[in-house]
Amino acid sequence: MPAIVYVCLLFAYPIVYNVLLSLRQSSVIGLLNNSAGFVGLSNYHTAITNPVLPTVVENTALFVVGSIVFQFGIGFLLALFFSQRFPLSGLLRSLILVPWLLPGVVTGLVLRLMFDPTSGMVNQILSDVGLIHTPIEWLTNTHLALLTVVLANIWIGIPFNMLLLHGGLQDIPKELYEAARVDGAGRARTFWSVTVPVMRPVIAVVLVLGFIYTLKAFDIVIILTGGGPVNSTQLLSTWAYTLSFGNLDFGQGAAIGTIMMLISLVCALAYVRSYRGELRR
Amino acid sequence: MLHTARERGRAHPRRGGPLGAATVAAVALLATVGTATTALASTRAGVASSLPARQGAASTRTTLPAPKPGVITLQDYYTTGDGSEMQAFIKEFESQNPGYTVKRDVMPPGNAESQVLTEASAHQLPDLLMMDNPWVPELAGAGDLVPLESVGISPSGLTEGAVAAGSYKNVLYGVGFGNNTIGLFYNKKLLAASHVAVPHTWAQLVTAAKALTKNGVAGFEVAADNVPGSAVWQFLPFFWTAGGDLEHVNDAGGVAALTLYQQLAKEGALPTSVVDEQQNDIAVDFMGGKAAMIVMGPWEFGPFNSTKGLDYGIAPIPTPRAGMSAVTPLGGEVWVIPKSTPANEALGLKLLKFLISPAVTYSWAAANGEIASEKSVSSRLLATVPDDRVFASEIEHARSRTGEVGLAYPAIETALGTAVQAVILGKATPKQALDTAQVAVVAALKQYHITS
Q: What domains can you pick out in chain A, each with its CATH number?
């Protein structure tokens, strides 16, 4: 019973409110005196036909795919690395978690300083090593800004992937590896025939959660670039924010928010289905 | 000290004070009389725009009861210095009016707008509230503010700028300490070292900026961050002076103004890094001698004067041709009385009258380089503060940002800010960038039923 109240109050209410908002002519005035009339799907229509949308969708796709591929890949390698016991492995593993533990705003501000073209550490190191001769405009070049944001988000996401995958690796019975060794399987063979199949449910969870977390990534982008320059790092999440609190067009912002929620929902449902299928097998 | 002063400066360049056709004024008046607010939306489109709003205001005059001693709630984001200036005014008020206590709530400048909107939607506004002038249409349009003429505050003694900043659809809802706008600040030493004269025309600006760009110094900087507040606020003087129109941003005037940015950026005299800089960032560049000329306002007098080795001058914003007057955006905060109970409104009014009294506004405007709202005070001040003269002459032609486009301004601002960035970065020609922006402008105007 308390669980139901909790869910209704803290999950259902905001979601329902957001959906209602997206169906109304929610300008500031309408919102303030509660006179916003229902306009059906017109906010969705406006948002979908908005000339900025294709750019935003493309950016979001690149951001999500780029982030997940590298977060997952590097996270998996680190997880394998730390599943071997060696001196100080526990300490190092905890240190690697730091990016994930820091508040996004703090990370964003520090990275902003690091990526500053003239005084930032990144350009300083690159030019000291002799790799570059003119400073790279990490955040103000429209071709580079998205890459910079993705790099930052990969760095933040690695610990999360590593942590879950490491947990999964710990649960693999040692006997399986021993049996594989007895059968004469090499390292690669053991990885693909023992580790990956046993890990499949964990991998699925990591990918689904990673997708949802990356889709809704917001703080790091808003601090680093605010979606700019010229919308080159505008994602669905930052765009919804700009529409709502920049343009004060709460209806359109809510429409984008609802669309994002549906995408996440579809992804989560697909995962639950495949998980059930897994259990039945 | 410097930090908070700059933060406040940054709070100014959002959207501007309103003035314009009379549609929603009538709506606000209906609300004054007590018409159900739900009727507002439907009435809004229907009221003829020719309705004489001023007369309406007089006819619905309501008298508030005499205030009863008690607690007056006040909310502001005057955080200059340690905020002690405002605190001193409150102390003075309390000693002059025994029995009254002021409960002051200081909002963080960056969040003030969303905080005010949240409180308004929950009807939790204080007795007296400070807002940036562009927010007036939002609250006045919703019928949440007391029209000041109805409680006996007349606009007749105020400067034109003060009336424009505090009005929505020709009805006065707010009065502030004073107003400000932006001009061209230049580093005298750097100009002298390069034998460059202070530019007055666009051609001179380009030549000067080119000559000044060397040894790691940028010749000219404007804010162009994509939080469009400061980018558009700083672009508007060029845009408006060239004849730009916020309802048709891709007209010849707009294109000409953006072509100036394009030219400056192409020559390297306007660094592309400004697309990541807000107004306070370019002020820091100027103080550090990294920018020779910047667009800035008088709220930086304090920080600039206390910067060792900085010898600066102020000139009006350069114009396309010699002899023109620059049209700049009007900045400045206003005090408003939110609608509540007559008793609370009376309390708010009592404090408001004290805060806009000549003694208080004089002391505020003198310390902050603003043009005082009251005409008599501002003329007295101008005789003593020479730095303010440039701004005083500019403010005569200053225009409120929301005057023509009202509630559509925020969306137009976003679109225009993106166009400014695209041109500075060489991603689009001025015409292409503004054509793209115009699509969003048309959509925003249509959404708020603003026809041109």
A: 2-280 (1.10.3720.10)
